[in-house]
Every structure is written in structure tokens, then in C-alpha cells.
Specification:
The structure holds two protein chains of two kinds.
Chain A lengths: L1 H13 L3 H11 L2 H12 L2 E2 H5 L6 H13 L3 E6 L2 E6 H31 L7
Antiparallel strand pairs in A: 1-3, 2-3
Helix pairs in contact in A: 1-6, 2-5
Chain B lengths: L1 E8 L4 E8 L3 H9 L1 H7 L7 E6 L6 E7 L5 E12 L3 E8 L13 E9 L5 E8 L3 H28 L1
The chains are: A mainly alpha, B alpha+beta.
Chain lengths: ~120, ~160
């Protein structure tokens, strides 16, 4: 699973244009933004939680997060009134976990389909 | 026979399940085209599905509900986008409120089914699920897990009451 995650990430890097690489370097050329990336790579953070760590307003933190998001380094999602920020690798890992759950659902469905198809029907089998 | 492969695209948020069965394409098509067969595999035994409306034509609708162990009905719908019997079906699958009206606050999934003949006989069924966003996927799984947990708790109640 980790190997696959890595492959996806390498794919992403290989597909980056010069403009995209410029955005990444610009995004990381700021101490606060580098610190945000460090924190969200460990685990998802709320924007308000991040704002408490820096001597700046929630709005200012939101602007930093927007720059990181534009560079594809973090992803943002809404949970109730909270805005949650996660590292991009984190997002890929989360996607994999969630799709694994969906895989279980479909494997169960295919098992049941097998049972239905195994039964004789009126016409053709 | 059964699942032969599962492929996930983490960037595009799609999952493709392939399965093989020793039946004809027409027979496999009935799994979707016959509401009585559909309801036997769509929901888990703890949340059996009941199909009400079933108009499997482009632009048509399929409506169903899943009954919880407590007897609560969770309603869902398909909006049928493409139908090429017995080869291809594309539907949008979503949730509905208690009156059966589509709930636009909850995410929808696109399901694309393809049924192909295998050279040696039997069929290869490909089912692709397409999710609109990570947030939507998160919400869908949370709802599914909640139902699984509630089903397990319902069973526990039964054990404790015995």
C-alpha cells in the first residue's frame, strides 16, 4: 500500500510543469507555510487550530493554506463549521483507506451476486 | 468465479471491480434489470433492499429503500443515464429523504456496469464507481460504517434481551 502511495506521488511529480514547480517553491518559501505543511503531514489540522499556533488571524492562516492548496501540497475539506487541512500524501492515503471500505462493500455484493446466479432460473441459466 | 480484480485510482477517486461468472450476458443483465434479483444483492442481509420504482431506461428512475434491523427505512434512488442491454448501464446513485425525494445535501456516486463475453464462455462484469470528491467519499463511508455499526448493535441488543 505504501509502495502504491509512493508510485502515485512520483507520478504526480513527473507530471508537474515548470509553472507548477514554481508554485510549490513559492509556497514553501515562507516559514509559516513550511510549518503548516510539517504539521498537516503528521495529521489533519483545523484552520482554527493552526491559527492558535501563529501570531496571526484565522484569515491570514486561511490565505497561507490557500497558497499551499494552489500548489497542490495540501487539501482542504469542511467538517461542520470547521475547515480541515491535510497533507496531500495524507489525502491519498485517506482515499485509499476509504476506497478499501468501498471494496469490502462490493466484494460482499459480488458474493451475493454469485449466490443469485448459482440458482436455476425459469428460462436460461 | 467471483471477483477477479479491484483497481483504485486515488487521484481520480474511482474504483473498478471486475468479476467473472459462468452465465450469459443476458442472464447477468437480469441482476440489474429484474428488480426482484437486484434487491437480493444490493443490500446486505442486515439491511435488505426493496426496489419500488424500476424504470431502467435512459432518463428513467429506480427508487429503493433499505430496511435497518430496527425497521427504519433508508431511501435511495438511481437516475438512469445510459442503457445498452445487456452490455452497459450507467446510473447516478444517491440518497433520498423519508418521502423519497432526492436529498441534494448528500453526495451521489456514478456506477458504470459493463458486461462482456469471455472467449472461453461466461461473462466478465466490470463495475466502476466514480466519487465526486474525497469529502463525498468520506461522508459515504461514514454513513455506511454507521449502518454497519448500528446493525451490529441491533444484534447485540437481541443477544442481551435473550
Amino acid at each position: 500500500m505504501c509502495v502504491r502511495g509512493l508510485n502515485y506521488n512520483q507520478m504526480v511529480v513527473n507530471q508537474m510543469s515548470d509553472a507548477e514547480i514554481d508554485r510549490v517553491f513559492h509556497a514553501l518559501a515562507d516559514t509559516t507555510r513550511r510549518d503548516i505543511v510539517r504539521r498537516v503531514l503528521v495529521g489533519e489540522q483545523s484552520v482554527s487550530g493552526l491559527a492558535r499556533r501563529y501570531p496571526m488571524s484565522v484569515t491570514a492562516v486561511q490565505k497561507h493554506v490557500a497558497v499551499l492548496e494552489g500548489a497542490g501540497l495540501v487539501t482542504k475539506r469542511r467538517e461542520g463549521r470547521e475547515q480541515k487541512v491535510a497533507g496531500r500524501m495524507d489525502a491519498l492515503r485517506r482515499a485509499e483507506q476509504l476506497l478499501d471500505e468501498y471494496e469490502r462493500l462490493w466484494r460482499d455484493r459480488i458474493d451475493r451476486i454469485g449466490d443469485v446466479l448459482a440458482e436455476p432460473t425459469d428460462g436460461e441459466q | 468465479m467471483g471477483v477477479t480484480g479491484v483497481a483504485k485510482d486515488l487521484e481520480a477517486l474511482t474504483m473498478t471491480v471486475t468479476a467473472e461468472f459462468d452465465v450469459s450476458a443476458e442472464r447477468a443483465w437480469q441482476l440489474w434489470a429484474d428488480p426482484r434479483q437486484l434487491e437480493r444483492w444490493w443490500g446486505p442481509p442486515t439491511y435488505p433492499a426493496t426496489v419500488e420504482q424500476h424504470d431502467l431506461r435512459a432518463g428513467g428512475a429506480v427508487t429503493y429503500y433499505m430496511t435497518s434491523p430496527e425497521g427504519d427505512r433508508h431511501r435511495g434512488w438511481w437516475s438512469v443515464r445510459e442503457v445498452e442491454a445487456p452490455r452497459r448501464l450507467v446510473v447516478e446513485d444517491g440518497f433520498a429523504d423519508a418521502d423519497g425525494n432526492p436529498n441534494s445535501d448528500l453526495p451521489t456516486t456514478v456506477m458504470e456496469v459493463r458486461i462482456a463475453d469471455r472467449p472461453g464462455g461466461g461473462v466478465l462484469i466490470t463495475i466502476e464507481s466514480i466519487f465526486p470528491s474525497l469529502e463525498a467519499l468520506e461522508q459515504l463511508v461514514a454513513m455506511g460504517m454507521e449502518e454497519g455499526l448500528r446493525a451490529a448493535m441491533g444484534q447485540m441488543d437481541g443477544v442481551l434481551a435473550a
